[in-house]
Automatic annotation (TrEMBL), chain A:
Keyword ATP-binding in record: no
Domain of life assignment: Bacteria
Residues spanning the membrane: none
Protein's recorded name: Copper chaperone PCu(A)C
Annotated keywords: Signal
Pfam families xref list: PCuAC (PF04314)
Automatic annotation (TrEMBL), chain B:
Protein's name according to its UniProt entry: SCO1/SenC
Gene Ontology MF annotations: metal ion binding
Cross-referenced InterPro entries: SCO1/SenC, Thioredoxin-like_sf, Thioredoxin_domain
Gene3D superfamilies: Glutaredoxin
Binding positions for Cu cation per the UniProt entry: C78, C82, H166
Keyword line: Copper, Disulfide bond, Membrane, Metal-binding, Transmembrane, Transmembrane helix
Family listed: Belongs to the SCO1/2 family.
CDD domains tied to this protein: SCO (cd02968)
Keyword presence, Membrane: yes
Disulphide-bonded residues: C78-C82
Protein's organism: Pseudoruegeria aquimaris
Highest taxon, organism lineage: Bacteria
Transmembrane region(s): 7-26
Length: 155, 208
């Protein structure tokens, strides 16, 4: 929790939201929108969470990892479907978001894969998910847990 | 590059009209006609496999003939693509309303090791009530996948678990068990629902 917020130009909105731990240049300008996830059946199956990560700043930011008390192995994954219609899923690695751009974590593409759940994901509850950036900054969002058959942030 | 172009011009000179007609046939009706997937699934009547549905009934391809059918492959430990497909299908079925109950909608697992009858029952229970979950011995799953020309593969993950790569398309058959079309993963609802309606009416129009 490095508090470097005094350095310069910390956007007021992030100060007010209290959802971001400001750090070095870049990641303090990250805004996470429309986060949602699906309920799980027990803890043996991995979960997935979705959101839009927007870089409102003037420097590129690189998303390097995830952390949450809900899962021991949270990781950014990407699902792909090839020309034969076969879907597969693999770790997505680091994701760089250019200034003014956003990256969508959405069904069938990038997702926050929640492996080794510590407790079941129960519809109606929330869990905190921390996004870690290459500049050392972290952004934590509360992710609502929707039904298993949810199709988007509205359910 | 130069040589290839020369050859092309040569062919064109030899008979532009004939070539054009041939190309047209090739693309529209011939072997060059666009196939969304590698190979076409067999008619349901030509498939052979025995599985168990989520209510412990013995089932096979024969159970699907007589009504239009929608089939897709997946597994319940799939966090992203499968729940998305199941919820998309649930949405299409809701849009079809009463017509949905005139269809067979079957989710066949490619992970029978973890997807027992009980696991399938619990899982499909969260989606549209028309959706049935089929599982069974590995060799029968393999025969089913072969019939649909679907593929799947077990892939180990870092945590010591495994995930499954699998065909994510939805197969649509008419009431006679002939393939009508496939719905690609992520196909927008505006395209998917009319395709399903086609499968629902094909048996009437296609009757000879
Ligand atoms: Cu994943």
């Amino acid at each position: 929790m490095t508090k470097r917020s005094y350095i310069n130009g910390l956007p007021l909105v992030l100060l007010l939201s209290g959802m971001s731990t400001p750090a070095f240049a870049g990641s303090e300008d990250v805004v996470v929108e429309n986060a949602w996830s699906r309920a799980s059946i027990g803890v043996n199956r991995p979960g997935a969470a979705y959101m839009t990560v927007r870089n409102t700043g003037e420097d590129a930011v690189t998303l390097t990892g995830l952390a949450t008390p809900l899962a021991m192995m949270p990781e950014i994954h990407e699902s792909k479907t090839n020309s034969d219609g076969v879907s597969s899923m693999a770790p997505a690695g680091e994701i760089t978001i250019e200034p003014g751009q956003s990256v969508a974590l959405e069904p069938g593409g990038l997702h926050a894969m929640l492996m080794k759940l510590q407790e079941p994901m129960t519809e109606g509850e929330n869990f905190p998910l921390t996004l870690t950036f290459s500049d050392g900054g972290k952004v934590t969002v509360e992710v609502p847990i929707l039904g298993i058959a949810a199709r988007g942030p509205e359910g | 590059m130069q040589r290839r172009q020369l050859l092309l011009y040569g062919a064109a000179g030899a008979g532009v009209l004939g070539l054009t007609l041939f190309v047209g046939w090739w693309r529209v009706d011939g072997p060059g006609a666009p196939e969304p997937k590698g190979q076409r699934p067999l008619p349901l009547s030509a498939m052979e496999f025995r599985l168990t549905d989520h209510e412990e009934n013995e089932v096979g391809p024969g159970n699907l003939i007589g009504r239009p059918t929608m089939v897709f492959f997946g597994f319940t430990y799939c966090p992203d693509v499968c729940p998305t497909t199941l919820s998309d299908i649930s949405g299409w079925l809701e849009e079809l309303g009463d017509e949905a109950s005139e269809m067979n909608v079957v989710f066949i697992t490619v992970d029978p090791e973890r997807d027992t009858v009980e696991a399938m029952a619990e899982y499909v229970g969260y989606f549209h009530p028309v959706i049935r979950g089929w599982t069974g011995p590995e060799d029968q799953i393999a025969r089913a996948a072969e019939g649909f020309r679907a593929s799947y593969e077990r892939v180990p993950t870092e945590g010591g678990d495994y995930t499954m790569n699998h065909t994510a398309s939805v197969f649509l058959f008419d009431a006679k068990g002939e393939l009508v079309t496939m719905i690609d993963y992520h196909e927008p609802r505006e395209f998917a629902v009319p395709k399903i309606r086609r499968a629902l009416t094909e048996d009437v129009e296609g009757a000879t």
